[in-house]
Amino acid sequence: SNVLNQFQRSQAIAQHHDAVTGTAKQHVNNDYIVRLDQGIRGCSGVFSESFNHLLSLNGSTLNQEYCAMLNISQCQTTEQNSPFIVTLYNPLAFRSSHTVRIPVTDGSYAITDHEGRLVASQMVPIAEAVLLLPGRNSNATNELIFRAEDLPPLGLRSYHVKTPEGKPGKRMLRSRPKTIQLPN
Amino acid sequence: KEDILVSAYGLSLKFDRQTGHLVQIGNESVEQQLLFYPAMAGNNSRFEFRASGAYIFRPNGTDALPLEQPATKLTTIFGPVITEIRQHINTNTMQIFRLHRDESFIELDWILGPIPIEDGIGKEYISRFTAPEIRNNGTFFTDSNGREMLQRQLNHRLTYKVNVTEPTAGNFYPVNSFAYVEDKSTRSRMTVLNDRAQGVSSLLPGSLEFMIHRRLLHDDAFGVGEALNETAYGVGLAARGSHWLGVENSRSVARFLAQRMAHSPILTFSPTTLSAEEFR
Question: Which end of chain B is more exposed for a tag (fewer CB within 10 A), N or C?
Answer without folding.
Answer: N
